[in-house]
DNA sequence: GATGAATGAGTGTTCATTCAT
DNA sequence: CATGAATGAACACTCATTCAT
């Protein structure tokens, strides 16, 4: 039994190393410029070993994606089922998305880039995104019902705007030196998403 | 001389045909799935001819990008130099960006997808974007000075939010059946960008 | 025009060289042991060149097969449409098969070996054989109607026996030093096919 | 000792299972499409175990061949040493060959396909065949001496014709739906081998 | 200048074989 | 001994680029 679990442990460690190397290379070069040979080389194993863990390059990418996004998935489910107002849910959602997407899982952006246009290859990844969209839609609809979100905006547009603001912004943040701190940045994004860029109207004098 | 310019004209026509075909194929298949052979075939010339106009696949893509964004570039310059308020400038900017990015130049998205991470290859394209960002930054700073934009938001963040909202949203619009009309969509994006998703406060009763 | 046909000629010459080299290697090593790389090497061209002439290894094999068997095909059609008795037709058929299969086109045997069990890969080749079988069946049925062939034998069995005798025998002849001359061998095969191995009964004394 | 022989027994059982699985897969897919991994999987052992019984894929195939043909070998020896006429011996030989080759040991055909051209790999298998040929040659020569076989036919040709008729025909029978029953088929093959396809001459009226 | 066949490095993938556990 | 993960050479095939015509 101990024997078994030792082997199993090694296997998982190796798998982890492969995923790590893949993520690194993906970030350095992008999907198409990263070859299985390079991944193997970086891990320090033979090419064939990769195929013992993942049945194809595509499968490796999907596995990487799943690993990367499992936590996010769980977090989103949690937020969705909280007993708080929509505004707070969306706030938490932005926090969560920013945290996972930018800080912990930048591989997201690369895969997204590759996935948008290659529907067939990354069908599975798309479903992940659609799941996320559905959860957020429900929250936004809740907020409209509460009267706190602008009911004249289509929910779908609101969802994409959320992604658009976060992904675009954080991606830049990740790849470039930035003057703005992470916390400030997230605060600004929330501000824009909730109130836009218009200067706040001064509270009417009482 | 006249002979020369006739030849030159034919050359330019050919070049135009190549760019056209490239754009089509890029939209149909994406960058990596489009081969020089296919482009040549669609134009109806030999592969070698492509290389007489563009020294590499990459150079062809950059040339395409430049052609595609020349109009946008001009339009942005025009808006930047208008004698109107910042709010109006940004409104026009959103109209313009939406128009060019989604309606006229969807190739943008493909190139952007390919370009984000491959810094070296698409350096030239990045400069285009940086130019655009600079113009928009100036406008936003103007708006802050006017007191109509939220001065507590870093201009850079505001710029990226603008791109984020437009690109993400319109890309989806381009690739999927959509319930929202183009005009409504642009209206919603402006609304979100200026006011966020919060429900408008009712005008204080007089 | 002359220019055109020069290039075309060179192309065909090269194609011929590829087919030649393929045939040689097929005979030396068999289908699975012959790699596209080896073929290219023997021809003295790059691997890619092979693919400009034949879209896959399989296609190359089929093309080789077709080239090799075109003459046989024509010859069989001719025999089938002759205005002579069935016995003579079968005699000619054996001559023809022996000539083409053993002397001129030994590649046949290799392809047959590969084709029997890999139905899907070599469907096209199988159809060639079925065409041949059909022609021979008609002749044999004719012979039965004439009363000269044994009507109690199923035609199908007779066809396969014809192939069996010729292919098995000639294949050996090709690959081994042989005491029997080619002409004698063909004579013996005809003898066996028509009369079996039983000693001829002496003509009854008058 | 008893322990030893128990282990030995298990070892042999395992070996038998491996050979069985190999035979099955060979029939289902052919030599090149059958991997050591698949064989191991079907047996339910690890790949490494295969190599404890057979030092290579090739050795496994040869061992399978030997096992498969041991019975045939014995049967042929028996027939060869019988005290009956050559005609009867050949008749029995055809029965035996048909029985073993088609009914019990179709694996023969696959191996033969693979073996014909790869002299080096299957040298050992070839020797088996040569032994068979030698025995049959002796019988045929005996028949010639008896005056019942056509002495003008070279014995070697007669041997190959025997193989040719049986193998070609039965192979087809094995792989295709057949109208002819097995017994009839064997009868037809004997008929052709002994008398050819010519219609039997009516007994002279007396 | 136009052509398109030739090039060859590169890709993802397979699989017989080995060997540490 | 059994195991099965690791190996790495080999394979079929692609495609941006070159260059003789």
* Secondary-structure arrangement, i.e. CATH architecture of the largest domain in chain A: Orthogonal Bundle
Count of DSSP H/I helices of chain A: 9
Flag low-confidence runs of chain A: none
CATH superfamily of the largest domain in chain A, by name, is Tetracycline Repressor, domain 2
Described by strand count, sense and barrel closure, the largest sheet of chain A is: none
The Cα radius of gyration of chain A reads 20 Å
Shape of chain A: elongated
CATH class of the largest domain in chain A: Mainly Alpha
Question: Would you summarize the structure shown here?
Answer:
Chains A, B, C, D: Residues 35-54 bind DNA. With 206 residues, chain A is mostly helical. Chain A is 76% helix and 0% strand.
Sequence-ordered SSE layout with sheet pairings:
Four copies of one chain form a homotetramer.
Chain A: H1 2-29, H2 36-43, H3 47-53, H4 57-80, H5 86-104, H6 107-117, H7 123-146, H8 155-175, H9 182-195
Helix pairs in contact in A: 1-2, 1-4, 2-3, 4-5, 4-7, 5-7, 5-8, 7-8, 8-9
Chain A binds a DNA duplex (21 and 21 nucleotides) through residues 3, 6-7, 10-11, 14, 35-37, 45-49, 51-53, 55-57.
């Amino acid at each position: 039994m101990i024997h078994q679990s030792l082997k199993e442990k090694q296997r998982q460690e190796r798998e982890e190393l492969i995923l790590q190397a893949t993520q690194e290379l993906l970030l350095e070069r992008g999907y198409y410029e990263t070859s299985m040979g390079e991944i193997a080389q970086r891990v320090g194993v033979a090419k064939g070993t990769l195929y013992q863990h993942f049945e194809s390059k595509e499968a490796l990418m999907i596995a990487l994606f799943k690993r990367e996004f499992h936590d996010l998935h769980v977090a989103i489910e949690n937020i969705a089922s909280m007993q708080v107002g929509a505004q707070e849910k969306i706030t938490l959602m932005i926090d969560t998305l920013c945290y996972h997407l930018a800080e912990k899982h930048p591989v997201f952006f690369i895969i997204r880039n590759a996935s948008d246009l290659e529907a067939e290859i990354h069908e599975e990844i798309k479903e992940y995104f659609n799941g996320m969209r559905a959860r957020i839609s429900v929250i936004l609809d809740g907020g409209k019902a509460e009267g706190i979100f602008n009911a004249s905006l289509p929910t779908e547009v609101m969802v994409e705007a959320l992604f658009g603001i976060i992904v675009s912004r954080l991606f830049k943040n990740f790849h470039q030196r930035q003057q703005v701190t992470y916390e400030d940045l997230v605060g600004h994004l929330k501000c824009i998403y909730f109130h836009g860029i218009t200067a706040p109207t001064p509270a009417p004098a009482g």
